[in-house]
Amino acid sequence: EFINRQDSVIRSLLLPLTEGLARGDIQLPDTLKAGRCRIRAYTTWMRNFGTDSFFEKVIPIVNGFNLKSTAATGIAIAANSAPNLPDIQFFPEGGDLVENLRSKVGVKVTGGDGAGKELSGEISDQTGKVVAAFRTLHAGIGAFALTPVPGNTYTALIKLPAGKIQRLPLPAAKAQGYVLTVNNREQDSIRVGISANIPRPQMVTLLAQSEQLTCYTIKMELDGHSYIAAVPRSYLPAGIIRLTLQSADGEALAERLVFNDQHDELKLEIHSDSLSLQAGKPVKLQIRSVDKDEHPATGSFSMAVTDQETVPVNEADELTIRADLLLTSDLKGHVEQPNYYFTAKTAADSLERAAQLDNLLLTQGWRRFVWKKQTADSTMFLPEQGLHISG
């Protein structure tokens, strides 16, 4: 579906899937006004799970017959942002803060234009004692550690431009509960810490799931001590993994998203026989595709060539196939510069971006026990078996 700025569908295509691949194109009329439009794609079966799972991409449209309107559209978008206070949200790891249990808390700061903002702040208790500090980095996201003390309340003091301070209360800690902590820096496994301050021992299950597929399960008895579980990466596909702590009767107690990077992306090499490009002359390219072990890899590929002076490219802003299929398709809302997390140039930069990716999932992927089981009775839209016409 091709959707204009007024959220009206102006073009719609029905395309057959062959081995998971569809080919099609959308012609743009000369009368189309310049601005930001959207492409949306989905199958009928995906409608059972809401629009969050639909593919969507914002596409800027430039109409060569009226370039002035394009510039005006860009100025109007920037002018609409009001100079109000930033929006600041806090996300306890696993779902809730729990008294006497150390938790990681994610912070996300956005401005009136919806973009992330880099700010710093401190966390203090009711006596004014500073117990933690934080700083937001890429996309306005950061994190800090906190162990709530019974009877204490906590306030965030955020340092705004011009020396101003914004005060916000932190979410109240529960007297009893469960906390999940994730260490995603190990090469062979994902380390999951499970803590609880419950009055009596309880059997729980840790589930590692990708979409609707359960990849790994661990059962354990919590008796007041922390438990460290190792989830082998070899059992997990690449992409977002949902870690859920479940009680013996199937109730979700805590949940956390984590990214499993298998480092198995293809490497593409492009070579040209001609050193200079001439207008109107054909260009021959040689393309080589290899896997992570440098073995030749086959696949279905497409290519688009643009003039970099007319359409400048920013790697971080691009929504690549990898960033969409493995990251943004499983997160609600807009992900700022999704390809930023996959374009590190050095080993140190790669570790830093992996930590920022984990904070992205801690904040924008935060959930408090979103646990649904898809049953046959709740299925409203069945997969297409072909085209049908009735009357």
What are its keywords?
mainly beta, 3 helices, 34% strand, four-stranded antiparallel beta sheet, 391 residues, 9% helix, globular, single chain
Describe this structure in words.
Helix content is 9%, strand content 34%. It is built from 3 helices and 20 strands. It has helices spanning 67-79, 321-326, 347-363, and strands at 2-3, 9-11, 35-41, 55-61, 87-92, 103-110, 120-125, 130-135, 141-146, 154-159, 165-169, 178-183, 189-196, 202-210, 213-222, 227-232, 239-247, 252-260, 267-272, 285-290. A 4-stranded antiparallel β-sheet has the order 2-1-3-4. It is globular and about 75 Å long.
Q: Briefly, what is this?
A:
The chain is mainly β.
Outline the secondary-structure elements.
Blueprint: E1 2-3, E2 9-11, E3 35-41, E4 55-61, H1 67-79, E5 87-92, E6 103-110, E7 120-125, E8 130-135, E9 141-146, E10 154-159, E11 165-169, E12 178-183, E13 189-196, E14 202-210, E15 213-222, E16 227-232, E17 239-247, E18 252-260, E19 267-272, E20 285-290, H2 321-326, H3 347-363
Antiparallel strand pairs: 1-2, 1-3, 3-4, 5-6, 6-9, 7-8, 7-10, 10-11, 12-13, 13-16, 14-15, 14-17, 17-18, 19-20
Number of discrete helical segments: 3
Shape label: globular
**How many β-strands, per DSSP?**
20
Percentage of residues in strands: 25-35%
